[in-house]
Write a structure and sequence with these properties.
Length: 426
């Protein structure tokens, strides 16, 4: 019997770093339905910037029949002889914040078509408790004609990727694992333990592992919502929120959170998955959804605060020129998924302002596709009535922002990171 062969389904922010890591010890087939993405990766480039090009090229192979290494493909033929199938597709929400499981269903169908006796399918996508066994397993059975826990098995190991973070990379973050039987749980745990330096934690069931994932980010979401509410209160009192948090942080057990825009594919989404499942059981989760409403409303709040400052400085709002710095969901990262900077921009434009967007990290093509907004990687010329820093990119610290404002102009720093004198911040 040959060496364990792994297929990673979905080569985005989660799948590629994981595939690259496993490829250091196993033969890995990276599968993605996006042929352009596959071609990019096979050429040794990663536009998400999660895996450096030299590190990617070190594991890339031209032949799928290798002893170790990574071969990327969009052909199902390439994954038919794998032993483990790890599904890392996105699980977003729709415009009404209801979970979208379509990518998970379609990838399960794809895997089912090549599944054979003895194989194991591991899901990493964020879901509410029960999705793996109640939603995905029936699709695998129907697509493969095989019997669950007799012919094939499943596991769940929630992703813990932090986009843009070059310190807490996948191998340095402890991994939660689980399996559909105790024996499979141990095998899944051993597989991840062979490459995860930080170690693993074997959960007693798949549902426990699924639940652990959604509460990790729900907890952060609620804590950030709390400090966002504090920011609103202290702004009314003309008290510096950041100074208050710094003072409170001198207590040994005070948990440090900062106010801000809460977007992205995890914190801004996961609470809705847990809330959806709770409501199916007849329970309305008040704290979770209240926190979400608070954080979802921060874009509108920031825009109103900017406009308020403009009015106070006798700056005509309608037709004013405003520069928004940053459209990614977090600093030093090209990821624009579920970015709340878009809410700030849309709300500013609702006042009749002329908004320009500059972000040296974001892809203008992707922003146009996702949000129908024009953004630039080149700093626009001209003077502005207001500048709004929505993202704490390092490049913005090197800019003389006051020089870019008209004689009377407003500088608003959402993240509270600028070295310059600002007129407002959360």
């Amino acid at each position: 019997m040959g060496k364990t062969k792994i297929a990673v389904i979905g080569l985005g922010y989660v799948g590629l770093p994981l595939a690259r890591l496993f490829a250091t010890k196993y033969p890995v087939i990276g599968f993605d339905i996006n042929s352009d993405r596959v071609a990019e990766l096979q050429s040794g480039k990663d536009s998400t910037l999660e895996v450096e090009d030299n590190i990617l090229r070190a594991v890339l192979k031209e032949d799928p029949n290798m002893e170790t290494g990574l071969y990327c493909s969009c052909e199902m033929e390439a994954i038919k002889d794998c032993d483990y199938y790890i599904v890392t597709v996105p699980t977003p929400v729709d415009s009404t914040n209801r979970p979208i499981l379509t990518p998970l269903y379609k990838s399960s169908e794809t895997v089912g078509k090549v599944l054979k006796q003895g194989d194991t399918v591991i899901y990493e996508s964020t879901v509410y408790p029960g999705v793996t066994e109640e939603e995905c397993v029936p699709i695998l059975e129907n697509s493969s004609g095989l019997k669950f826990n007799k012919d094939f098995f499943v596991g769940y190991s929630p992703e813990r990727i932090n986009p843009g973070d070059k310190e807490h990379t996948v191998e340095k973050i402890l991994k939660v694992t689980s399996g559909s039987t105790p024996e499979i749980g141990k095998k899944v745990d051993q597989l991840y333990a062979s490459v995860i330096m930080a170690g693993t934690h074997l959960a007693p069931s798949i549902k426990v592992a699924e639940a652990a994932k959604v509460i990790e980010n729900s907890q952060r979401d609620i804590n950030i919502a709390f400090v966002n509410e504090l920011a609103k209160i202290f702004n009314l009192m003309a008290i510096d929120t950041h100074a208050v948090l710094e003072a409170a942080g001198t207590k040994w057990n005070f948990i440090p959170f900062k106010p801000g825009l809460v977007g992205g594919h995890c914190i801004g989404v996961d609470p809705y998955y847990l809330a959806q499942k709770a409501q199916q059981f007849g329970y309305h989760p008040e704290i979770i959804l209240t926190g979400r409403r608070m954080n979802d409303g921060m874009g509108k709040y920031v825009a109103s605060e900017v406009v308020k400052l403009m009015v106070q400085n006798d700056i005509k709002v309608k037709g004013s020129k405003i520069l928004v710095l940053g459209i990614t969901f977090k600093e030093n990262c090209p990821d624009v998924r579920n970015t709340k900077a878009v809410d700030v921009i849309n709300n500013l434009r609702s006042y009749g302002t002329d908004v320009s967007i500059y972000d040296p990290w974001a892809s203008p093509v992707e922003v146009k596709h996702e949000y129908n907004m024009d953004t630039s990687k080149v700093m626009p010329n001209g003077k502005y009535d207001a500048i709004v820093l929505t993202v704490a990119h390092e490049e913005f610290l090197q800019m003389n922002l006051r020089e870019m404002l008209k004689p009377i102009g407003v500088l608003y720093d959402v993240k509270g990171f600028s070295n310059e004198r600002v007129d407002g911040r959360l």
